[in-house]
Protein 1
Amino acid sequence: MSSIASTGVPDAAAAPVRLIDERGAHVGEHPLPPVAELVAGYRGLLLARRLNEQAGALVRQGRLAVYPSSRGQEACQVACAQVLAEGDWLFPTYRDTAAVAARGVDPVEVLSMLRGDWHCGYDPVAHRVAPQATPLATQLLHAVGVAHAARLKGEDTVVMALCGDGATSEGDFHEACNFAAVFRAPVVFFVQNNKYAISVPLARQSVAPSLAAKAVGYGMPGVLVDGNDFAALTVVLGEAVARARAGGGPTLVEADTYRMDAHTNADDAARYRTEDEVAGWVQRDPLTRLRTHLAETGALGEEREAEFAAAAEEMAAHVRAGLGAETPVDPEELFAHVYATPTPQLAEQRAALRAELEFEEA
Amino acid sequence: MSSIASTGVPDAAAAPVRLIDERGAHVGEHPLPPVAELVAGYRGLLLARRLNEQAGALVRQGRLAVYPSSRGQEACQVACAQVLAEGDWLFPTYRDTAAVAARGVDPVEVLSMLRGDWHCGYDPVAHRVAPQATPLATQLLHAVGVAHAARLKGEDTVVMALCGDGATSEGDFHEACNFAAVFRAPVVFFVQNNKYAISVPLARQSVAPSLAAKAVGYGMPGVLVDGNDFAALTVVLGEAVARARAGGGPTLVEADTYRMDAHTNADDAARYRTEDEVAGWVQRDPLTRLRTHLAETGALGEEREAEFAAAAEEMAAHVRAGLGAETPVDPEELFAHVYATPTPQLAEQRAALRAELEFEEA
Amino acid sequence: MPATKMTMAQAINTALRDAMTADDRVVVFGEDVGQLGGVFRVTDGLHRDFGEARCFDTPLAESGIVGLAVGMAMNGMRPVVEMQFDAFAYPAFEQIASHVAKLGNRTRGRVRLPMVIRIPYAGGIGGVEHHCDSSEAYYAHTPGLTVVTPATNADAYGLLRASIDSPDPVVFLEPKKRYFAKEEVDVAEAVPPIGRAVVRKPGRDATLIAYGPSVPVALAAAEQAATEGRDLGVVDLRSIVPFDDDTVCAEVRRTGRAVVIAEAPGFASVASEIAARVTERCFHHLEAPVRRVTGFDVPYPAPKLEHHFLPGTDRILDAVDTLQWQDSWEVTA
Amino acid sequence: MPATKMTMAQAINTALRDAMTADDRVVVFGEDVGQLGGVFRVTDGLHRDFGEARCFDTPLAESGIVGLAVGMAMNGMRPVVEMQFDAFAYPAFEQIASHVAKLGNRTRGRVRLPMVIRIPYAGGIGGVEHHCDSSEAYYAHTPGLTVVTPATNADAYGLLRASIDSPDPVVFLEPKKRYFAKEEVDVAEAVPPIGRAVVRKPGRDATLIAYGPSVPVALAAAEQAATEGRDLGVVDLRSIVPFDDDTVCAEVRRTGRAVVIAEAPGFASVASEIAARVTERCFHHLEAPVRRVTGFDVPYPAPKLEHHFLPGTDRILDAVDTLQWQDSWEVTA
Ligand SMILES: Cc1ncc(C[n+]2csc(CCOP(=O)(O)OP(=O)(O)O)c2C)c(N)n1
Ligand SMILES: Cc1ncc(C[n+]2csc(CCOP(=O)(O)OP(=O)(O)O)c2C)c(N)n1
Ligand SMILES: [Mg+2]
Ligand SMILES: [Mg+2]
């Protein structure tokens, strides 16, 4: 397959790479990914959308404290997970629950964090998925570290590092991109430019022609891709992963997408954006687009649709059941993991808490 | 005068802007700055060189603890000060003593810091020269703040913010460039790329085509200029200052130069670079180049040369005298400036120190 | 203007408004403080009423925000910046420790930095990790910073006005769990000077020393103790740096017993400082060692466990019980 | 191998070397640590002897260095990074406080971070601003970090080996003014476990508690006191977190008097913690309040004034003099 992504100095003002347009038609010269991949991707999108909806419902029911939804960004969420091999790593943010789930982590485990159980509900090592990062852009450096270590050890691991448009303004974004480029680390920086950092619009984050253009300053390829086009994302991210794996170093990929929901349920998006703006993006919905394409090309029959819908419902039921259950947390676990072995100070504090609890029980 | 500096997307791989070549000849299309400016500049270069030498001598004599020399970078040092108007601000680093002096600050005051008197020896407000920054890249943000405040107040102040090649790797460099671009702040970021950050060569700092290319990612003009060509520096920096003053926002200027001395006297440059490499740069000496040019064009007679040399010697004598004198520092000053009014805690500690000192005296 | 009921968020909003009205050098900026009015709505309406030049959003970069404020203060303005949550001030730590705290000293007072860094801090809101740190020790340990934290809405108003008026940089720590509780605030009241603690409740038997979010907890403990026949006093520091030794020590010398209460992990903390300095100054008045009731030395826990972490009334009263009452009946008599 | 005379810089270099030889997961990186061998030559020769993959220079960015180390530790390596000077670790503060300290806890122990952050710290070398901070309180206050600081060259070797072997992240604070003093080091000696203080000098009359650069000062003070007939003991903490309460308190209970010595500004410091916890645990054994002799609460001064700032023997002995000896002749008798 010929390369779609710039491999030299990115063309800063280039239009986003797109393979399927808003009416579901294949556009441009580049061939589409195999149909099977697109169908699998479509299934993933349905599951991701359902997960976003289900998690939102759980918040409304008071089962989750908060949920940062990726509705509208599902193509990004699924594509970035789907292009990875088993041994690769994913570094997600708080908004990337659907990507973590697409990587194979049980969404109940992922969401248990937002039920307040613990800071991370899944095993990062078993899944090769880092804990969802809250402090913006900080995780990008960890991603570079994992990648650099892999390279030093001679492993062919690739690391997919996610962040938002807002996070590109942080110093750690800069340091991570630069370290990766200098060390030729096998990382793909994947920026989901969903146009807002909470209430702050892109124009207040950057006046560069694109965020992908930042790649120039690090000496790495940068690609702007239509973030609601699953096919284009798969190709662009896939190429970046392949380049990284082949020793070609990092790539900065910017997805042009949109956060359809508010920042979280606690946010009031009406304060900073219009309904019209949101409505405009409904036309570009990543699910509709892929479904139309697959339906029109005959790749998706009613049976398949029904099968996928059932899978999504099953997942949602599993999530409801898993998060409905009350899971007690042991107060003494407060002290268990701070150090491999608790310090004498922590042992003392643990004993004091235990005494309190025993007294309460008595 | 036509613009020499890119005002749009910088051409990342462009050759450095140069007006006078290594043999003193005017090259290219762009006219040279007025002869008077070049002559004044040459005088400045001589003073700067002499200051570097004198400070080095004072270190060897034990009068100064340490001195980070800008030998080889004098064209940058003088040009960045000379293009500023009186109300403008300069934000220098530890290496920019000659620039601070070129801005009109008494070098004795500047160097008194390195004699150990206090952290900053001059009045930043009176001179509109910030204290020489030690923590790398941090001062760039202050420069943006001064510029942004000036703009909000409707003043036409421009801020010249200096840093080295190494400092461009710091997160604060990124945040400063981005803030300046987004706020269209009247700042000129002037990177003296002297090829080393202590021992670390440029190749370990960045694999971008140039440091000026980083401007692309912020949406500001970026220019690479021959840092040993005083004429080119004056034109490029002058244009950047004019653009900033006219409301055109920030510019990133990278000077291609070389640190002829070790990082400081405490450094052993033989550990990380060859004599050959250094010798190569002797050919590109900024003083020789400008002198040759001025001499060949008849702008610099022997009389002038002698006059400038005398001025440089006078300055050096002043520096020797000023730094040779023993200047006592009052121990109680430790507590005087931490807050506008010392806290009760500091008053108490000051009293305790006073008691100690009185006891010692008694 | 008479006293009005308002939340702490409103009190802070009013203080910003009044300061901006009184002095046009006062500017407010940070993340989401503009059109949105801040994630806690503390800056609500300022962008609308004072315009983009006086209240604006920045790119998302905390070191950038604080560094910008330093420069603006150098150039005659009085910036009030918001860090969105406690742990998100850490990227600005170098700017705060190496510049905000030191620039006045570095320049022998020729440059003063009249700026305020507002930080919603501490826990009790069921927040996810990084949203509930009690970070006061980092700032209090750094010479050159003034560190203030209100416990009441009236103090939130008054201390913020005083902080904005201060010639020195102030880290203004807002106990976020108190943001939405209503209390009477009289904005016409004299602004309390920074550096004065206040005795919230006099008490004969022992002194509870607290600040910020722990003050209401201490008061609740004192109330409960009263029903059990023990008369506990409560001192609210209001300002950690400068520290009001006089007020604190006067109380402790009277009671001979003290408990320090703070949410932050106790090790090398502000609570350690209080215990150490009170002991240094009141040693021979003490019937028992000064006790500390603080957060454990663990990262702030996930919501389900935070109530075990936070110093509550029971834990405070348990600590009071250990103050060796039996040996000293003559003092309490 | 018998004991050899070496400087602390050499002892640390030897520890790095031996650790890199023993375990090829150990990698060393930072600014100028490669070909140059570090600005203090602590990593001298490692690049040459172990190659670019094991010892390398990074771009100039401290948050980047620490963040890279976090990722490398997540992927099975044991990074030992150098921050060039104390204040230049501040840009990495968010990485240290929000990730290095918390990742093990965040993941319920599924991810451990066996990494060491080496920081040359404290003063006494006539350095310019930002090169002499005593920053231990920031780290010691942050749960999840182990904080170690050697006072002798033997400990520098042994504690660094132990730190590299630790499954937890260690902030390893190197008293830079001790870098070039020679002492005997026996690298074959058992590595001291982290968390054990050591009594450097027993003493009957009062206990000096110190760590890092203040230990030799405390010993000098004790020596001087001996000539004046007072027998002072000196405890060297070696590890601030975990803290060795047993060793410290045993000494203080015996003498009934204690002075804590540290270079850092005293407010909300490690010295505050020591004073507070020793008092909590030894209150009824104390004849006088625990005194602190620390740096003043001012930014680290310029070279000409640093000797006024640093706790010296005179100031320590003055503090010892205030320990109310006259009231307690029976204890010292
Ligand atoms: C260092 C840091 N500063 C501030 C925050 C608070 N915060 C959480 S999300 C957010 C906006 C992030 O925007 P963006 O990077 O575009 O990601 P998105 O939420 O749009 O996915 C902010 C400011 C944070 N988490 N970390
Ligand atoms: C934040 C920070 N980290 C590390 C240092 C230590 N240091 C001082 S100068 C220097 C190299 C700077 O290189 P460069 O930016 O190229 O400037 P140059 O010295 O070449 O002028 C380093 C690492 C510092 N001063 N500040
Ligand atoms: Mg966004
Ligand atoms: Mg350099």
Protein 2
Amino acid sequence: MDWTESFRKAWVVTDLTSRYLLATRRVIATALLAAVPLILTLSLAAARVAIFDISLFQILMIPLFLQVVLIFVTLVNATALIREEIDDNTLPFLLTRPISKPALVTYKYVGYLIAVLVLLVPPLILAYGVTEAYRGLGFTTDLDVLWGFLATTVLGSAAYGALFLFISVLIRRPLAGGLLIGFVWESVVGSIPGDVPKLSVIHYLRTILSHVVAIGPLNGYAPDLSAGVAAGILIAFSIAMVILSAFVFQQMEFRQKAG
Amino acid sequence: MNGVVEAAGVSKWYGEVLGLNAFTASFGKGITGLVGPNGAGKSTLFKLLIGQLRSDQGNITLLGENPWNNVPLKRRLGYCPEQNQLYGWLTGQQFVEVLLRLDGMPAAKAREEATAALKVVGLTDAAHRPTRGYSRGMRQRAKLAQALAHHPEILILDEPLSGADPAGRVHILRTISDFARDGGHVLMSTHVLYEIERITNNIVLIHNGKAIAAGNIHAIRALIDEHPHAVRIDTAKPRQLAQALARMDHVVSFEFPASDTLVVRTRQPDAFYRELPQIVSDTKLEVHGLESPDDSLDAVFRYLVG
Amino acid sequence: MLVETAGLTKVFGEVRAVDDLTVKIPDGAIGLVGPNGAGKTTFLRLLLSLVRPTAGTAKVLGRDIEDGVLVRERIGYMPEHDCLIPDMTGVGLVSYMGRISGLGRDTAMSRSHDVLQFVGVEEERYRKVAEYSTGMKQKVKLAQAMVHDPELYIFDEPTTGLDPRGRTEMLDLVRTIAKSPGRNVILSSHLLPDVETICKYVVILDGGHQIAAGELSQLLAGATDRLRIDVRGDREGFARMLNEGGFDADAGPTGLHVARKPGLEAAVFETAKALGAEVRYMGKEIRSLEELFLELVARTEKRGA
Amino acid sequence: MSITLPTYSRLEIPLLGRRERLWAIIATGLRQGVRRPAAIAITMLGAAFTTITSIILLFLSFLLPAGQGTGLSFFAVPASNPFVLFFVSAMAAVIGSGLIADDIQSMAFTLYLSRPITQLDYLLAKAAILAPLVALVTILPLLLTALVAAFLGLLSWTIALEAMGISLVIGGLLTLFYTAVTLFLSSLTRRKGIAAAGVFAVNFGLTIPAAILAESIQNPSILYLSPWNDYLAIANAAFGASGAGIDWPVALAILLGVTVLAALVTYVRMKAVEVITG
């Protein structure tokens, strides 16, 4: 199978997936949710809140953006990749095309990543811009904060997306499972002392943020783990989850509904 | 390996629910009609053939290859699922075009082939409307278009006629026969028996997960010997005609439902039809109507499955 | 009069689903046929007053469709698509629908068992609907339409997706209902042989208009002066010999069509003997509702296109 | 299996009115809704948990010498029991999210529409299925606490009865709010999961961030954004306890406003759902 053809197929699936996630009515809800950071900073600026500055920005964004918005947006979009197509009976159209199931899962994941980042990154940058502008500071004064959040958004989207993709391939009701893991497990595990937090994605996101950002609420969060290693773990985790999803999907059989 | 589809002792279970049970058959040249009651295993057989299910026992091949997770084989087959859900947000044209590009076709060529396929199935005027608004009949045509757009060797169609209106059915049947005339194979399941008889005499009768009959309808009909072939003849003198026809040894019984009607039952219909003109013209008996009510797929179905 | 409409119109966006329709439908078993998108489903929805008409009025069983609740009290509707509540049992669902139609709890339960027995759902009625076969689901859909004993039954494609045996059973049930006194049936179906066997009166819609309506027997009184012959063997030769014998014969896709003339039948068998061909069918050119339908739709398409 | 066609039997009795038809939907909806194991667990756990914690709060406040006021204002504490928020969200997600979404997914909505009831009847009946279940968590615990306090003589009967009256009003308000919002979310989509996620988003997405925000910028007016905080303000005011920083008339206006808006939008959307194509 020569390269041009497989690239062309990769492009088609990625484009189809990202367009579905961005161009259909479902985007209204996810875009609104992804814009919460921007809405928040704008309303704080409009309300002329005195102490609104980059440190307040971080204090709000870590629990609100990383632990609520990021999880919701990745969950709703990741479960749409395979499980919704199974429930909607549209998967047979893709499966009877000369493209292997693992390739289908991988290209759909790439499409998902593009869509989620298009949803999450712009409002984040704008929110950062509003915070700096409100303080009358130049856009580049606290670039480390911006880089910190951008890095955690990208790695968070990748890791959570891969995890929720795997759940959606494995069980019939992925949203319920995803909500449980996203909200209950991630927040509970994060606050248990000892090594338990290492089992949650948020731990590595906080580590990266604590290293990248010079002064911020998370300083000295996990000294023994460098940002690079944490990022490496998240990337490895994402790849592992996608491979697992592809493997499970490869073995899945699709019986028709009863009757 | 003459048949397009070769199945030897294929079984498939969903827990205890029967899918296929030691299904053995070899068919598929030209147009083959797959008929059987609901739950007989038609959809299961199709899902095995397009590699979305794996057989628990026995092995099954399509065009000589094992379909399970077989990527290159997908280029040679076109599948039209039974249910009617499409990508509602895509227009008809986009729907076929996207799937064609998944065959590795460059965008321009895909657009051209998609437009052509939509023309073949008669969906050109609705091509640029989202499929969300399509009626059942239009969805059937859109599914058929995506199945034949990449010129596969075989079309596997699950109930392609259900939901289509009479004009739509005529159009779909013509599309299928043209495809077969150009050398393609077609395997289609249907419940609308009197429709499929118009385009093929080659059927596979499936019941309780087994192929209980495969081949030409009339040949199968003739084989059902506990239901000898009935021929209804409208004639002024039914009794004299009966005497004349009694000479043939394969004739089993006569009935006189009305004063001007004779029903003859014979074990060898072909021989009967061959000798009938001879007898009628020699005896100068006036025959003004001739019909064989149960030489149809409906009758075959009723006798074997009913 | 079962249904009377005056200038009934329903427009969705720029699609005129039902366009200034004025019909008078008599009591009894009525067939409603038309190509996809002819406006059949919209017309039925207007009668059930599930949708408000854009213009015009309609009366069902003498009641104006403005008052939806009163109209729907006397109608049993069997939708075309799957619509049963998956995790209820058959008997539970049918009695539930009976209660929503205004039956008391106990009456609904006893009626539910009656109608399920009538449609032939035996002990499966205690299992969940999600586990039913297509045929069984259709029967429960019919049962829920019957439970409150309506005067008008509206069947939307009742036999779609059924196997031949299921289809025969469903048609027997519909025929029994249509025959019972004081009960009317509107049967909307694409399978025209079904309509032929059950309905006396037929309304043909296309593009939101009524293109034909009348007693089935009149509509189908086709050409009785032509004979259709199915020949197995040298068909062209057969037609040629008949023409030489002074008969007007032509070989069409559905067999030979020959104008009736005395001595034709004898000539047919003479020719068959001479050519060693077989005569498999000889009878009058049966005009089916399907042929009439295709003719009418083709004519409107020519006019419309 | 041949069909034995018994003679088609006729039914000669008059049909009951719309009230009985509505009651049929409510009764069956409750039975079907609670039959699922997850629903039973959530309902039982919710009612028990909130009641027990309220009664424990009751004892704590009376045993400690200078407990928070011994009169009516004590009830502000159980009324703002955080478990109420958690279990109301869980019940709305597990039981409420499917009320309309499932009917759209299975297209049983067409069956309801084809019966002699109006779309308003359908919505009122569906609301009347969820409301009593939610009330098990928002109203019942308060009533029981008041009764226990009165029986144990910790409170005079007059105060207890007054407390029960107030509990009915504010508990009822919270119940109406969550019923309307849940039905609105349930009517938005045919995927029950997304409606459930929406309920979680409304509750946790608003309550937690509003709390963090208000505390970090010392500007309580943000709390108006969180329905739970609005309810707390009203409850505290109703029981005469010290307010939570936001004044209750505005909070009441917000809660009622959102409830009415959600109900109206759901009704309009349901009326517009004319064409359910197969």
